[in-house]
Structure formats: C-alpha cells, structure tokens
Protein 1
Amino acid sequence: MTCETFRELLPLALYGEVSFEEEEQLDEHAMTCESCAEDRERLTQIIRSVGSEPAGVPPGLLSRCRRDLSARLTADGSTRRQPAWWERALAALNPSLSWIKPASALALLSIGFLGGRLMPDWGSSGSGSIDPASVSRVRYVDSDIPGRVRLVVDETRQRELTGEVSDAGIRRILMGALGDPSDPGLRAESVDLLGSSSDNADVRQALVNSLRSDPNSGVRLKALEGLRRYAAESEIRDALCEVLLTDDNPAIRAQAIDMLVQHKDTEIAGVLQELVRKEENSYIRSQSLKALSEMKASAGTF
Amino acid sequence: MNTHGATLVLPAQAGVMDEAATIRAAQRGDQAAFERLVHTYDQSVLRLAMNLLRSSEDAYDVYQEAFLRVHRNLQNFRFDCSFHTWLYRIVTNLCLDHLRKKKVRRQESMTVETETGIVDRAAVLPEERPGSDPQRTLFSHEVRAKIGSALQTMTPRERMVFELRHYEGLRLKAIGEMLGTTEEAAKNCLFRATQKMRSALGEFV
C-alpha cells in the first residue's frame, strides 16, 4: 500500500467503512511507515475531539411537536377529499397506460353528459329530506351526471344518555370524546370521569394517550391523576418517564416525579440521572436526587 | 462514537413484523397505529434536525413537514426499503433544503438554541468536567470553536453525511440509500468532511 492510498482510506477506516483486507493492509503499512502511523494517531484524536454527543433537543420541543402534529393530522384528515369514483377507476388502470387517463376521463364525462340527457330523473333522497344541521361529516362526494351530486354523509342526532361510568358503552363514548380537538373542557371532564374506571386496561390506555399528547395541560393533569394507582405498571411508568423528559409544564412534571418515585424501580435510575443533569425545576431535581440516593444509585452518569 | 444500534431506535427482528403490521394498519387509516409509528421514530428525527439545523423552529418545521408527508404518502410505501430508510429520506431531503436555503440567505451564524438559550454551536459539544484546569478549559473551548467553523465550511451534503455517520452512527451504504446516491459518493463526502475537520483542528492535536 502506498502512503497516498493509506491517506485516502484512513478516514473511512476510522469510521469502520473499509473491508477486512483493507484494514489489514492499513495496519501493515502503519507498522512500516512512521509518518502514516502518526497521521492515523492524529486523525483518531481529531475525530475523538469532535465528540459523540449531538446537540440536545430543548425540553418541551418534542411534546410541542407531537401535539401540533396531532392537531394538524386531524385537520389534514378532515379536509382531505376522497377520490371520486372515476378517479379510483382510472387509478386502477395499468400505470404504463397513463396516457389513456385524460382520454378516459373525457370519455366518462361524455357518457355522464349523454346519460344525463337520455335517462329519466333518477329520484333520490334529495337534499330536502336531509337536515343540513344534522350532517356531522361528509364522507364521499362525486358527480354522477353534470349538475347532480352524490353525497355520503354521517348524520348526528342529539340524544341524552345516562348510565354508569362502569358501563362499557358509556366508557367508549367518553373515550371517543377525548379525541375531540375543539373542546378541552369536554376532554377534561371525560378524563376526570374515566379516571374512576382506570382499573380497565382500555381506559388506562386512553388516559396514557391523553397524558402523552393532549394539547391542554389541564387535561394532561387529570389524566395523570387518573393513572396514579397504576404508577408501578411498566407502561404507565414509561409514560411518566416520557412526560418528565418532554412535557413543558412544570406542574405536570412535578406531579409525575411524585408518582414515579413512589415505586423505586431501578429501571428509572437513568431517567432520574438525566433529570438531575437537565431539569431546571429544583423540586424535581431534588426529588430525583433523593430517590437515587434511596435506591443507592449514583446521581451522575459516567 | 455512537454505534448504529445505540443511537437509533431500530426495531429488533421480532419487532420488524410488528412494525410491518403497524404500517399496514396505518395505511388502512388507523390513526393510533400511525401515532405509534411517529412515536417510534420522532425523537431520532427531531434530534437529527436539531443537530443539523441548530434552530428549534427549523427542527420543528422539519418534524411537522416530514410526518405530514409520511401521513399523506404512506399509501405509496411499498416495503421495498425499510420504513426507517423511507422516513429518513424524507427528513434528510427536508433538512438539505433548509441547509441550502440557509447557505444562500446568509453565512450561517455560529449559534444554536439549547435549553439554556442561544449559545455558540461549539459550546454544545461535550464540555470539560467541572474542576478541570482553566488552561485546559480554554483550550477545549478553542477546539470546540474550530469544530464549529469546520462544520460551517462543509457543503450541505458533506454536513449531512458527516452528521449521519458521526453522530447517528449510520452506515455509509444506508446513508447513500437515504440521500438517493451511491455508497461511493457518500464515502467521498465523508472523506472531504473529515479533511475539513482535519484542516480546522490540525494545529490543536
């Protein structure tokens, strides 16, 4: 191997990106060439000095990203138009025949136009039979013939329901209400009520979801309260750790640390150490330190 | 240096099956499944964007745009590469766009937002332990400043390859795949990036 080849391969070798044979040749060359051996030592130090820790993500940024994404996805989903029946039919055509699509669309439109002229009135439920106020969501829209539309809609009817929170049907409705982005009050009330049924695994999952991603801190606090009795469960413990590291609300983090340190599980030591290093709230830091000391764990990482 | 497995939340082989099922469920419109996918990868995505763009707001924009694109195009994901590669292709493209715009807009500032506010980029690199001697701290500060300026001299592609290899621990083959280029081209980028690092830090080591 020449010195030039050595220098070309060296950076790649230090990142483990050369073959076994090339690595052997590099080693052999370094044993016989003092200058290249020094060069390798120098570059190793340079790469080491760059460090391996990437820039940190500021606290709260991840939870803000998640919450806003959740809201945008909801908006995105509700505004996205379903493809019309003819678009879906055309999409099924072989992609290699894509040139045919515009022509086919024109042909379908022509058929629609002629069909409209030649066919008798189809008759339908008509808009007159629908109360527009009862339409909660339009699911599907297309045009069968020019001037006419076909709609598939969800209708709502207001009804009053009464029952126990322990009733599975009532619980399902309450869990559904947690996904209503427009009404935090409704979500907070629903979370509060569901908290009394947290012995149910589905309810606990719904509360964990609210804790992780509800944009309203009041709702998240109530979800936390509802999960208190189950803080020792691994999934709840993971959610508490995540909240401690990502939630931007100190009151929620303070509540979460109290719940987490009740059960001194060695698996949370890493999170507590991170909190000692990064957490800006002194109460949370001191609780973390106290718990680590009671667990006989070190406060720092090495 | 981070290894591949240590840095990324890559599912174990058993988990790959679960992930495929989750992706299929999300393709059918299951929002909870989509959320699971997001939560599996979003910390790595945000960290990469933050590291490359050095701004919370830019990293936030990349995060939102990346996952919105994933949501809109998930139907087109055909399992001909891993989901991780597909997602990172979207993220790296968005980051490259941001880096290029920044390059055009201005000579990049040397600052980065951290939990303690806006600081010099070099200052977010590993700090000396408290108690070390001031001479050494000063030296280390200078080294970090040099690293920061070396990162500035890299082209967006060199920067991307360097970040993905050095900090994220990805293999050059995977990086090439993500950036829509060959392993050879990724190797060249890494070579040039380390040369720039070497020129900047040569006098210190």
Protein 2
Amino acid sequence: MEKELRLMKGNEAVAEAAIRAGTDGYFGYPITPQSEILEYLMEAKPYETTGMVVLQAESEVAAINMVYGGAACGKKVMTTSSSPGISLKQEGITYIAGAELPCLIVNVVRGGPGLGTIQPAQSDYFQATKGGGHGDYHLIVLAPASVQEMADFVELSFDLAFKYRNPVMMLSDGAIGQMMEKVWLSPQKERSKTVPGWATTGKPPTRERIIITSLDLDPNAQERFNQKLVAKYNEIREKEVRYEEFQLEDAEYILVAYGTSARVCQKSVQLARNEGIKVGLLRPITLFPFPSKRLNELAGKAKMMFSIEMSAGQMVEDVLLSVNGKVPVYHFGRMGGIVTAPEEVVEFLKSKIGG
Amino acid sequence: MAEVTGIKEIIKPENLVYKKTKLMTDKVLSYCPGCGHGTAHRILAEIIDEEGLQSETIGICPVGCSVLLYEFIDIDWQEAAHGRAPALATAIKRLLPEKFVFTYQGDGDLAAIGTAETIHACNRGENILIIFINNGIYGMTGGQMAPTTLPGMRSSTSPYGRDVKIMGNPLKMTDIVATLLGTYYVTRQSVHTPANVKKTKKAMRKAVQYQKLNKGTCFIEIVSNCPSNWKMTPVQSNKWMEENMFPYYPLGDLKIPAEQITQKTSNSEKND
Amino acid sequence: MTEEIIIAGFGGQGVLSMGKIMAYSGVMQDMEVTWMPSYGPEMRGGTANVIVILSSDRISSPIIKHFDTAIILNQQSLDKFESSVKQGGILIYDSNGITRHPERKDITIYRVDAAEEAGKMGNPKIFNMVVLGGFLKVKPIIKIENVIKGLKKSLPERYHSLIPMNEKALQRGTEIIKKV
C-alpha cells in the first residue's frame, strides 16, 4: 500500500499515526496546546474501525494509570499531554518504568514552571531525560522536529517500547503540535493479536500467575532489579542513539539543537554561512540516549559548541558532559514561550567568536 | 458418643468441614490475627474458583495492608499506585471486555487518594467490580486517620479522637457511588460472622453475574475491623465494629438492579 | 524558491483559514509548506496571525522574524509587522479601519480594499479570498486552479457549493489590488 499525503497539524499527525499504527488504546485529558489529539481521535472514531479504545479520562493522573493497566495487558497504549499535565503523570510514569511496561507518552511542551504559558518551550528536557518521577529510571526520549516526525515516531516509539519493555516519550512542543506541514502517512496496520508472555490476560492452568508490579520489599531483590534496569539503559545507550547532522563537514562552530530549535538553527546555519562563518548543526533525535559519543568526536574538530534550546539551559549539561572539557560550550535560547529567532542565534554566535 | 477416631480418620475428605480454598496460594497471610482481610480474600478466591473464572480474571491490588494480595490468590494481578486501581481496571476491561476485572481497595486507597478515580470509574459505569474494605483506619502505615475514621475515634494522627470540626467528617463513599448513574449494584456487607460471610459471598456472586451481562459498576463495601490499630482483641474489635461502625455504615443494599426493585414491588403489592 | 509570508489581522477575519488555503494550494503544487498559527487566547495586542512558508526545498525554521510578504488586515498588525518585511519585500493591506498607512519606502506596498469589495459582492465572509486573489496577482507563486483544488481538499463536501463564489472573490482580488 502506498503512503498517503496530507496537510496536518503535528497534533493531528500524532492522532492519525496512532490509529494507523494499530494502537489499542488512547487515554487523555485536554490541555493546550495538544487538545487536538484527543479531539481528532474522537472525531475519527477508530473504535468503530480498528477497535482502538479512546477515552477522555477524569485527569492526567487517571489517564496515565489507564495506560498502566492497558500496557500490563500487553496492549499498545498511549497518552498525550502538555507540561503541567505531564507533571501530573509522573507518578504513573515511574510506576510504568518500575513495572517495565511499554507505552507511549507524548509531551507537547509549553512554557513553565507552574501554569506558565501555552506557548512552545523546551523546558521539560530534564524531566523527560533524567527520569521525571522518583527512583532510578529513564524513558527513551524521541524529539520530533517536523509534523512528519510527529507521525513517524509514533510507530517507532511503540517498537522501541516493546523491544525494551520501557516507556517512550515523544518530547515535542507547542510549535510542532500546532503547525501544519505535509505528512506522508503509512497505511493502516492491523492491531496486533499477539500477546506478550509477560502480560496479564487471565491465568490458564498451564502457566504461573503473572504479577505486574513495581514493588519489592526485599532490598537485595530491589537492588538486583535496579541493576537489571541499568543494564537495559546501557544497552539502549549502545544501540538506540539517533541524530541528524547538518553541514558539519567543515564546521568550526557546532550548534546542538533538537525539535523546534533544530529547525530554527537550520536557518541560523544558512544565515551564518551567508556571512562566511562555518557553522553546522547536530540535531539529537534521541534525547535519551543522548548522542554523547558523536559530540565528543566532533568536539575534537570544533572551536566552540552551542546548545540552542528554548530553556534556561538544560540540554547544555548533557553537551558539557559529552565533550568533557574538549571545547567551550555555550547555551543560548529564549524562554517563557518565545521561540528563538534564527537571527538571534547568529548574533549570539558572533558575540562569542568575536566575528 | 462415637468412638474416638484417629487423625487419619479426621482428615478424610468426607469428614473435613474446612479446608484451604483451591485458589488460595500456600503463602502465609501477612495479616494480623482476627483481621477481616483474610476472610474477604477467601470469599473472593472461592467465588473465582466456583465461577470457573481463574483464567478469565485480572485483579488489581491496592496500596495498603492488602498490597501483597497478589501473593495470596492464584490469578493474574496488576499492582496499582495508591488509589489508582479503578483507572487500571477501566483500561483493562475496555481493552479485554471478556475478562472478569475487579479491584480490591482499602479506605485510604479508595476514599482518600483515589476518590476521583473511584467516582469517575463508577460514574462512567465501567463494567468492573470494586471491593472496598473499610476499617476506618490506615492499617499498613501504622494506624493513621482514614477518610472513614469515625467521629471521636482515635488514631495516630487523631490521638484525641477525630474532631470533625478540625478533621472533617467521615466519608460515606458507598452512599456517594450509589447515587451515580453508572453504578448497577451497590451494597455494604461485613465478614465478621458466618451469616455475614454468606451474604458477602452472595453479593460477590451477583457482581460476577452482572459483570458478565455488562450492567455497569458493581461496588461492594465490606465494613471490617483492625484489631491491631484499634488496639483491641479480635473479639473486642468485632463487637466495637457492630456497636460503632455499623450505625454509621449500616449494612445492606444501597442500590439494587431495577428489575429486582420491580420484582420486590410486585411481591409487596401481592402481599398487600 | 522560498516565499515567507505573514498574514495578520483580527481573530475572526479568516486570517488562519487564508493561510490554510495557501498551504493547501502549495501542497497541490508539490511545494513544501509550513503553516504556523498564533494560538490560544490572544495576548499579542488583539491580533491573530499565521506564518506561511512555501518552498521548493525543505523548510528550516517555521517561525521567523522577517518576511518576503506581509498581508496586513488591521492597524495593530500594521504597527507590529510593517518593520518585519524584508528590504525589497511586499506589504499588502486592506485600508478598512486603517488610520496610519504604511510608510516604508524600501518595500513595495499594495492596497486591496477587500472588506469593501466583499461587502459589495454581498458576502463579507469571502473577504479573505479577495485578499488572497490580490496577493496572487502580485506574487503569482500559486496558480488559481491549485487554490481551487486546495479549497476542494480542505473544505468539507457540504461547503463545495461555495467554491464558485470563492473563485469569483479571488478573481475580483486580482482586479482591485493596486500599488500605492
């Protein structure tokens, strides 16, 4: 079957891609700037076609716990929200990580802290990549930078989630959620009929009962479990790093940016190169695992690195750890819902290189 | 008098009056002597067994004394975060509508931190069974005040007795959910005497049947005791429960299916 | 070819939908497009705006500060975005409600009195299509036939009867736009 071309908002693309990926259940709660996802699903009524369950929960807390329940049955389940709602979900997310359940969580980030603003931001990087809730855990974090990737990463997220029995987060933002672009949609997939062996489905006499839990009162057993998680995260760090390079071949100055900021920086690279400054861009696609090795290699060749993010400086800490002192690293970016302008990045760059 | 028989004679199956239910595991119960949880577990296990539902059942454990419930009954289980069991059950039942899905929750879990999940699952009429063990206290964390702690009742966080002016009133969750359009069968029972055990078991059996018929949420409160944290012997605690808990949380059905009401009315009309 | 456009006016003037039609038309013409609206309760001085980028290449930043064309439909937007037009760029405005007209000398300014014209045509709602017609006259980057295709694609079937009226409005726009 051929792919279908549509012009869609990023939020709508997530919803349509979820249906087409054969998602079993979506549980959500309205919050700007991502409410179009639930609205789209309710209008599309996939429960009448693919049988996908769509439910508006009473809260983000309930929604993520519905995801837990569905995931523990081996189903492809997801929820979406924006920053304040994602904070509410953190309890459920750490339980899901602790019970090693696969699921997809989409965060269409808005500015914070607190109620903040409904405009786009990238200020949830720490929360997404360092755990977010209590305990030692990581999500796999994908950062879409286009409406196309909002669609494509839904299926990729589920693949990774089931491969590692780990929750996956798509860390997007209000700009990508709200903007429309062309998107090529994959054909409809059937919902999976295979049930993973670890899922609760009712205990037949032929097997031991299955218990999905994150509880272990024996500290030795809990430590062994923590070690198992560490091994899993290390495997993910080894195998699942994804990034995109843009005009890095001869770059003396390297911008590091994800999502909307990466789009902004592509323009900044063009503008700076028009002025004869050799700039390139590394766009992490996975934020966990972070492309540390590649950045460390690049640090040997570059004069400076710049972490460009719509935050007070969060990813810059991972850039600093990656380059390990090999090269000076600066952070720049607007906050509070203001998208950094491409020209502002160039100005900042010039102020540092003295050009 | 019959002649004295040996132990072998006594444990002959035909002579036994009590034995472990098939679905109870060999794990030693973690409950204090005299606690109602063990009895409630046993009834539940019996019902699942008798109805042939072992391979069809997914249970959801709470946070509280019965957090380790999954150790005791031989079915598939999910352990929920504190108060969230009805949210898990909602998704499980919607994704696997043929399965028998129930939650088992204490008063702190269901009536405090999980109030929203409880009310909304009931209001949506999720086809699940919610079993609510109400002993008016937080057992596992050491006897703190629960949403259902009675006025004047002492706990470690109401050491002078629950002062309703400061601490608010006990919450009658079962009465609340009975008013919701999504609930089908709401009842309040106990498990402290054989007669009450029978009634509770009958209520559970009804709930199983109603779930098969997709009738909506069934909600069974079991008013229970907590000898350890009430600081009483098991016998005292049951007496105290009868004298203090039952007047505030009276036993009986709060909501029964419409067809039963019609039957009752027609019966009473006949009687008139 | 890349054309970076901002359309700005009051909420309810059809600003966002004009941008959408442009974007759909661009898709019909095999271009890359982005449509980035201002969203949420307006906090920008009563204006709603949308950035539309049409390009033959992959589009970088969907949010930009300088535009090839600004289509301006109220005074606040004129005050805010007149300075955002690139040197040598184009500013198109409807003079309805404008008290301070655009003043820049390093850009080309066009006036399209679309509100008045739509009123004359008996349907104020087609105002934005008159403006779009004017834009396509001075920047013929999309063929009118592709706009019609875009309309068919973006409008629910039940509104397709309105397409001839929109086509007429587009045509009228091309006729009444004039250089200031």
